[in-house]
Amino acid sequence: MAVEEKNTRCQVGLTGNSAVAYAMKQINPDVVAAYPITPSTGVMEEFSSYHADGKVDTELITVESEHSAMSACVGAAAAGARVMTATSSQGLALMWEVLYIASGMRLPIVLACVNRALSAPINIHCDHSDSMGARDSGWIQLYSETVQEAYDNMLQAVRIAEHPDVLLPVMICLDGFITSHAIENLCTLSDSEIKEFIGQYKPRHSLLDTDNPVTFGALTLQDNYIEIKRQQSQAMDMAKDVILSVGKDFEDSFGREYGFLESYRMEGADVAIVILSSAAGTTKVAVDELRRSGKNVGLVRPRVFRPFPYKELSEELKGVKAVAVLDRVDSMSSFGGPLFVETRSAMYGLENAPAVIGRVFGLGGRDYRVADAVDVFELLLNIKDTGNVDKVVDYITVRE
Amino acid sequence: MGDYIEVRWHGRAQQGVVTAAKVLGEAALMMGKFVQAFPEFGPERMGAPVRAYNRISDEPIRLHGQVTNPSIVLIVDPTLIGTVDPCEGTPEDGVFIINTPAGAAVMRDKLGLAGKGQAKVYTVDASKISTESIGRHIPNTSMLGALAKVTGVVDLDSLLDDFKENYSKKYSSKVIEGNLEAIRRGFEEVKGE
Q1: Domain span including residue B145
Q2: Which candidate among A134, A164, A286, A394 keeps its CA 20 to 30 Å from the CA of A373?
């Protein structure tokens, strides 16, 4: 996926939050409504500065809660505006009912979710409980490994959300503190490149277009509700082609490649880890270490979680003998995390399907080290050799 | 584990430790390096011990875990020695730079590094320098100058250029000049054993 730039001359050093805010500045949305919360606060802090300095034409609505923030986003998007917001954790939780309204009304809102654990107990650090809890809310979800990817995903999100075949809101996820507060090398694009890439938003319907009156959010009962939901589901399915074509256009324009997932050293791999976001980077270091000692291990990192790329994922994993899916969230179902459950389901029915185990890691910001990834790979190699799966689901990076 | 240098900063909240890591990251990036700079966040209150980290490499950095084995440690507030362990996780040939008027040999003892000849200890009176050049007790920039002199992970010109380029909007020219002076004096006045 994202081609790593070996030349740092064009680069700047920005945190994930700064990169997201800068992308928002360059996108120059019509309306931003937000209520700050750690660790996404920096996004709105910096965007507010751009707004105060007259660098954007945006109408910035400072609201009294995240529920109001998403409600204001819904209203503005229904009026035909290009709309963005940012939040984390409890903030996303408070948006909950309105998330469904945004997707059900087919409003192409872009939300930067800086991933953070949910209370209780209270914790400000990274895990994916917030966005994963919203996985069935009808939002497209893109997960970012690096600051660069968070920036690039923001730009592509606008195009994906607003595509006439899609018209769904998009959530860009980046890891709280690990990515949001870390300065990394970043290649920014020029304002004109971005303007050309995202184009002008022409809403299909607008509440303010009184010559063509429309109703949003009408009461639909047994007669129409299921048809509307099916259309929404079909839009999520059609988003797959759009995500790929926007990714291709991005690559053609700017050289960095984006698809559904990134495969890292999967050639001839016997075993693989499937993992999202920044922890994939740490896992790559473990892959390199083990490959150096002749162990055939690899990594698959889904960038897109909604829509779930089940075909591509099973295609990528079908040749290996054992897979560990690492979730930075627990579904509290006693059957592992959501990425595990869905990946395992995607593998079902494959001939010679690999053993698939699930491991919950890194909750509340618990460090995930190269040694942790190495341990999981060693376990997988043992499963490959013995065929013996002791525990299908378990926790790692935890004190026993 | 990879070909990068890891740096850990020890200080107290409001002493500019996070900014120091940021400036180091930016300056190293200007030299063509791949960088990470990130703080360790805890309860936010003035005077609380804080840490900040850097990774610097010639290759893109994929690792996203915490820095646990830094080869370079900067102690911006020497009163932390005894409260926190600046030597934690450091290799035998670790480099320590401490803000203090005391000599390096004295600080070696205080750090518990007596007899550990491979470890290198340096001192610079960054508090005095900052008070004289900036007019305030902000010792972080002189520590950066000392770091450039002692380790070469970043060069003096990149530090000065970065500070001029990236902070001129945020601070008055007087503050910028004071900090540039503090960086230069840190470079010149740092002492080993």
Answers
A1: 4-192
A2: A134
